[in-house]
Write a structure and sequence with these properties.
It is a single chain. With 431 residues, this protein is mostly helical. It contains 20 helices and no strands. It has helices at residues 2-6, 11-36, 38-45, 52-68, 70-83, 86-106, 110-113, 116-144, 152-180, 183-208, 216-223, 232-239, 241-263, 265-273, 277-305, 307-331, 336-347, 352-360, 366-392, 399-424. Helix 4 (52-68) packs across helix 8 (116-144), helix 6 (86-106) runs antiparallel to helix 8 and helix 8 crosses helix 19. The protein is globular, with a radius of gyration of 21 Å. It starts with a helix and ends in a 7-residue tail after the last helix.
């Protein structure tokens, strides 16, 4: 058993990781493309006579609604994923993402439908949130259960890097549309092309996942009749509260880093520092590419050194680079590309989070445990983060920096807790 746990990745492992990561990238593109066109969507789907700050808050509010819908979709899909199998839910989530993404690209604007326009946009965003709520936890469980135990970190890091490719793809598509179209053309048809392309991506991802196989861990549980006898969610809440709390707080760190430093940053740079959209999106692409590398690096390091030490070091690096980024961008915008690239690398610290969560719950309730923690945290913290940061910007331009440094302090404290647990019992293995 120990020999199997330590074996290197084989060809089948790499195929599974590649297909899962690629499918996740295409689906995550669908979910995040909204934020890259937030300014345009705000102008089209809300009245023209409202204050700019209110329009921005309402637009990010609809973006946040996708996070608020995550728990319901995630919990339902996780329940059946723990009982019927990981692969079935892994494919269903993509279909539930592709359809509303296509619909969003076809929605009439406020001038045509009035109040119905933002309401329909909100409904589509809620459906997207329900889909991604099952996708991300399911993907982490899927890849972690396909590889040897001592390769869990690189498997989760690879999958998280794949989701990062979805962000990069969104940034590149948005950048190309802004580069080759006038602002008027972007507002009339450009943003719609990005959403329609996302719908196509969703169906491509669905096709790719036909080649994936059910996880060996789930098959073994089926053979041994070791599937959860009661509601998996009930067992998570009753028996694994500490693991649940650690996972919720680490997901807050993950969501804050991605939402503030990667997804919101282009709009913040345009509004706060008057950096052109093309330049900010180009810098965002560099940062996202470095984030991809950071996730892979985090996966390798956590397999070797453990979650606690890596989390402490990663949070310190992330806090430092967050302060450097906001300071340098305000004073020396000519250095935006290299500084944002290093910030993206430091955000790769979030690649440690799924490793901790996969180890936190036993296989029979793993999907439900991760899904509850991840989606509950995203609904509360990830969903409210854009609104909180936008409102706090009225008090200080360093609000995003203060928010993220605070989360890094919390992450480092959790890293210390994991170090103590690993010396005593286990990393919160609570199985």
């Amino acid at each position: 058993m120990e020999k199997h746990a330590a074996r290197p990745l084989n060809a089948q492992d790499y195929k599974t990781l590649l297909l899962a990561a690629l499918g996740g990238a295409l689906e995550f593109y669908d979910f995040i493309i909204f934020v890259f066109f937030a300014a345009v969507i705000g102008e089209l789907f809300f009245p023209a006579d409202i204050p700019e700050w209110l329009r921005q808050v309402q637009t990010f509010g609809i973006f946040a609604a996708g996070y608020l819908a995550r728990p319901l979709g995630g919990i339902i899909m996780a329940h059946f994923g723990d009982i019927l199998g990981r692969k079935k839910m892994f494919s269903l989530s993509i279909l539930l993402m592709a359809l509303p993404t296509l619909a969003m690209g076809l929605l009439p604007s406020y001038d045509v439908l009035g109040l119905a326009a933002p309401l329909l946009l909100l409904l589509m965003r809620l459906l997207q949130g329900a889909a991604i709520g099952g996708e991300v936890p399911g993907a982490w469980v899927f890849v972690a259960e396909h590889v040897p135990e001592k390769r869990t970190g690189i498997a989760c890091g690879t999958l998280t890097a794949g989701l990062t490719v979805g962000i990069l793809l969104g940034s590149l598509v948005a950048g190309e549309i802004n580069r080759h179209m006038t602002p008027q053309q972007v507002a009339s048809v450009g943003w719609r092309l990005a959403f329609l392309l996302g719908g196509v991506f969703g169906f491509v991802a669905l096709f790719l996942r036909r080649w994936l196989q059910e996880t060996p861990v789930f098959k073994q549980m089926q053979q041994q009749k070791a599937l959860a006898e009661s509601l998996p969610l009930q067992a998570v809440i009753r028996d694994h509260r500490k693991s649940l709390m650690v996972s919720v707080l680490l997901t807050w760190l993950l969501s804050g880093a991605l939402v503030v430093l990667i997804l919101m940053a282009p709009a913040l740079m345009q509004k706060m520092y008057h950096i052109p959209a093309v330049v900010s999106l180009q810098a965002n692409s560099v940062a996202t590419l470095m984030l991809l590398a950071g996730c892979l690096l985090a996966g390798v390091l956590v397999d070797r050194y453990g979650a606690g030490p890596c989390l402490i070091a990663g949070c310190a690096f992330l806090a430092l680079m967050t302060w450097v980024f906001f300071t340098v961008t305000a004073l020396y915008p000519q250095y935006l590309l290299p500084v944002y690239g290093l910030l993206g690398l430091s955000v790769g610290t979030v690649g440690i989070v799924p490793f901790v969560m996969v180890r936190a719950f036993p296989p029979a309730i793993r999907f439900s445990g991760i899904s509850l923690a991840y989606n509950l945290s995203y609904a509360i913290f990830g969903g409210l983060t854009p609104v909180i940061v936008t409102l706090a910007l009225r008090l200080t331009p360093m609000a995003p920096c203060v928010y993220m440094v605070s989360l890094c302090v919390m992450g480092a404290i959790i890293g210390g807790y994991l170090c103590r647990r690993s010396r005593g019992e286990t990393v919160p293995q609570t199985a």
